[in-house]
Amino acid sequence: MTAVPRIVLASASPRRADILRQIGLRPEVAPADVDETYLPGETPEGHVERLARAKAERVARRSQGALVVGGDTVVVLQGEVLSKPADEADARAMLERLAGRAHEVLSGVALAGPHGTVSAVARTRVWMRPFDAATAAAYVATGEPLDKAGAYGIQGAGAALVERIDGDYYSVVGFPVVAFLGLLERAGWRFVFGAPARLDPV
Questions:
Q1: Which of 79, 78, 84, 110 is nearest to 176 (CA)?
Q2: Which DSSP string corresponds to the chain?
């Protein structure tokens, strides 16, 4: 019988861990410290995929036999990347720019292990409802936006700012589930529902 591999999440993001647990997996958490500086000429899509791979591969080197998951997410407004806000004023400015407009969320995910490394990028379009500066300030005052790319969390109170999306909701949260399941199959494993869920060899 093939041994079921350990799942290790190379991220400190509680949201990514929560999503893995939500679908029934029990990840170990081992954050990876990687330089997130953009390379010259690097696109946002290339950036999130490279960082997801770098995080997964770094932790895989010390987690022999495990399947190590890495991820990275950015918000892109008209070609400009909106990272995590530097402070409350930056968060308010980001939100005021996003109000009443569409933007893209790019989530890179990678899976490293005995199979090597496979990766993918999920792209989701998000439309924000129109709102004023006072609404942005009130949301920032909750503290929720300060550690999130684009200064909002769709899974929290920020849901009240989002009009609609086209794509994977979980990609906007920070972990594209469908893309991850595809990577598992490319690595030779099939997700099977259960409590807990399990991985069977393909």
A1: 110
A2: -PPPPPEEE----HHHHHHHHHTT---EE-------PPPTT--HHHHHHHHHHHHHHHHHTTSTT-EEEEEEEEEEETTEEE-S-SSHHHHHHHHHHHTTSEEEEEEEEEEEETTEEEEEEEEEEEEEPP--HHHHHHHHHTSGGGGSGGG--TTTGGGGGEEEEES-HHHHHT--HHHHHHHHHHTTEEEE-SSS-EEEE-
Place of tokens 């849901």: 159
Domains defined along the chain, listed by start: 7-201 (3.90.950.10)
- Compute the distance between CA of residue 199 and CA of residue 4 in angstroms, rounded to an integer: 6
User: b/e map of 178-189 (b: 16 or more CB within 10 Å)?
Assistant: ebbebbbeebbb
Q: Please count the other Cβ atoms lying within 10 Å of the Cβ belonging to residue 199.
A: 18
23-55-182-22 Cα dihedral, nearest 10 degrees: 10
- Residue 141 has a CB neighbour count (10 Å cut-off) of 12
Show which residues are catalytic. Answer: 72
Tens-place pLDDT, residues 129-183: 999 999 999 999 999 999 999 999 999 999 999 999 999 999 999 999 999 999 9
Are 129 and 162 in contact by the 8 Å Cβ rule? The answer is yes
